[in-house]
Every structure is written in C-alpha cells, then in structure tokens.
Known about the structure:
Distance between the termini: 75 Å
Helix content: over 70%
Largest sheet: none
Amino acid sequence: MTFDEFYIHWYSRMKWFACEYVISEDDAEDIVQEVFADLYEKYALLTNHVNLVAYIYTTIKNRCIDHIRHKLVEKESADKIRQEYLLTLQMKFDSLEILENDLFKDKSVETVIEEALNTLPERCREIFIMHKIEGKKQKIIAAELKISPKTVENQISVAYQKLRKELRNYMPLVILLLQ
Length: 179
C-alpha cells in the first residue's frame, strides 16, 4: 500500500479518533496532519517493519495526551491568574471600605501617620523624616548624621517595612506616604 492509499484510507478515522479526545475539530485535524506528515518522511522505513495502523494510533494518542496536558496547564495558569486578580480586587475593596468607614471617624490622616511614625525606633524615624518628609538625599543625611550612606539606606528600608505593617489597614495612606 502506498502512502497516498494509506492516507486516504485512514485519515478520516484518525481525525475522528483524535477529535473524540481533544474535542476541537481544528485541533484534531492539526494533530492528525502533523502525525501523517511525520509518517510520510518515515514511510519507506516503517512499512516493512511496523504495524502502521498501531503506530499511527499510538502516535495520535500520545499527541492527544500532550495536547490535553498543555490545555490543562494553560487552564490552571489562567485560573491562578484570575484567582490572584480577584484576591487583589477584594483586598483593594476591603482597604477602601476600611478607609471609608474608619479612617476619618476618630483620627485625622496626620494623626494616623504620626502614630505610625512614632512606632519606629528614634534614629530610624529621624532618618525617614529627613528623607521622605524633608526630601533630603541619602548622602546628605549620612553626612549630617555622620553615618554611612548604607546605614541610611538600611534604616529607610526598615522604616518602609514597619510602616507598611503599621498602616496595612490604611493602604491608600501607605501609597501616598511611600511615594
């Protein structure tokens, strides 16, 4: 049997077989076309040594498995991204509700920030205020306080971390403060 005869005889059956598993007719057709293209290149070598029907079924089955695995990974990734997006939206919503309900009832913005700054160690607070509120560069702060620029950098980092924790319920404030 020539390749053309084999192709004509088995193509529609193989496409139907693939379509049963990958669902999409286009995907099934792509898989079967690829398998027959690969078979065309090896046809002369395989005809005398291999059961071509078993070979083609097995190859299509394996390609369908690969295709389904790929689709499952895509779906899981999309679901994870969607879940993370929904979680982010929920956090932002909760943050805005807290801001709306609590922030301006008992305390002014200045009071909230001042209380958060007061939780910092004295030297850390001093460096943070010089940098963020007074707008001084790290090198200038280091020179004024007679400490290394690396120490200034570390103290600012510590301040950011502690303020994020202290102001976690006031996310819009953190955004404003830390810009």
